[in-house]
Amino acid sequence: MAINRICIIIPVHNRKHFTRECLLSLKKQTFQNFKVIVVDDGSTDGTGKMIEEEFPDVILLKGDGNLWWTGAINMGVEYALVRAEQDDYILTLNDDTMVRSDYLQTLLDSALKHPDSLIGSISVSNKDESVVVDAGVRINWLTAKYTNLAEGRGYNDILREDSLIHKVDVLPGRGTLIPVEVFKQVGLYDFKLLSHYGADYEFSRRANMNGYNLLINYEAVVISDVKMTGLNNRVNKLGWSDLIRSFFSIRSANNLKYRWNFARLCCAGWRFPVFYVCDVGRVIIGSLLYQTGLRNH
């Protein structure tokens, strides 16, 4: 029987406290056949030194501050793939998360039951773990309507469902387990077109279009600090100048160039312009509703 190993890739930049808490939660895992690779993209707050001193078993790779999320993930994945066996997995994880002690075992059990699949995690708030941050989405690839599978429900409500495994249309970088064969078949994340946002969704969409299932396991819990997300007013209140800047900033999922590239990569033919127009309209109108208080955070 194959001995499956998990290689965990975590990109970091100047968030030493969060990185420490994330790594501490990984040390408590019941499943221990894993290796952590942290890609420190030019931190100046002592993150790298902290990792070297407190977590000597962690592999530390360093960037120059220009990798952003996608470049950092790709650096870690490339390092892992050279050393991976055929039956190994790669887990992408963000540094502003913590996980429960059974997290890796839960993900692996799902992966073994569902071959040819990427397995995602449910995300709950670190302020109140009954509050669901992300339970997966389905996307209409024409109208750009995103349907949140957990809309209006708490985590305990979700646990009462008959099935805790659900198909989704995309998966985030915040806790997705990926067979190494996927990277060998579909390539890496798209740094050129999606350097900081959207690359995780696009990669999983590409994998899905190449025959892999996208699943989310509601028993695999990632505890997230939602306030640490990028420049947008859905979770953090912004001034009007910052809101406008969010449509052009590399640090924002609102970035209109990202939205264009994502639509072009994920929607073929005539669907691409329709999807893009609908998507941009949704982003701009939604942002304005949040900004004016007509929609609650």
Word description of this protein:
Strand 8 and strand 9 (146-148) form a beta hairpin. The protein folds into two domains: 6-227, Spore Coat Polysaccharide Biosynthesis Protein SpsA, Chain A; 240-292. The radius of gyration is 18 Å and the shape is globular. Helix 1 runs parallel beside helix 2 (47-54) and helix 9 (256-266) packs antiparallel against helix 10 (271-292). It is an alpha/beta fold and 297 residues long. The chain is built from ten helices and twelve strands. It is 37% helix and 22% strand.
Features:
single chain, 297 residues, Spore Coat Polysaccharide Biosynthesis Protein SpsA, Chain A, 10 helices, 37% helix, 22% strand, globular
